Please model this.
Amino acid sequence: MSAIIIDGKIVHYEVLGRGKPIIFLHGWVGSWRYWIPAMQSASTDYRAYAIDLWGYGESAKDKALYSLEEQANLIDHFMNAMGIGKVALIAHGLGAAAALLFSAKNDSVVDRSMIISPPILEDNLQEKFGSTNPGDLAKRLLEQSHKSEIVDSESQKIDQAAIDTSLKELAYIKMIDVSHQVNTPSLVVNGDKDPVIQALNQAEKNMLPRLFHHIRFEESGHFPM
Model:
């Protein structure tokens, strides 16, 4: 296990490969572990990092760090600690929200990004999620896709307050406005069978920034990767 200390708190990460850096950011359930196949694939040409966000996996559990701003700041602190000057981001769900907030303030260090199942146009996620118990939520988000034992097992390590805090904030943070502050090429990916994050229709795609491109997978759910 690899870890760094940020403001006296443990941040767990893993890394594979050599080359230009990519950082993988997980979503509301699971941890860095479900990125392993993608990291292995990317590691043939890139240095692939995956982080456990605050409240997840082996990273510190501290309610003071669960805001979306703090999760975005974690990306900044991690890059500084690793000596990363410019990066590509691949981010999912909660990680996608953090990546958008980070990119909006730090676009000079973000080369490009892939934003998977992002809450760009969602304003009632608390209602859509229903129970935010990590185990219940993992089962719901996985019901339309192939069962993942990794996501299920890692959900047991999540502090539910980390989920609740982000959902409460997304009720008043307009992520579509945040996305228009991002000046780097971004690929937005949705699964049509996602039970909580609705895939963008044509009218909604037209609301995206000029440098954003959208694709959707008809047979995929919340985990199109």
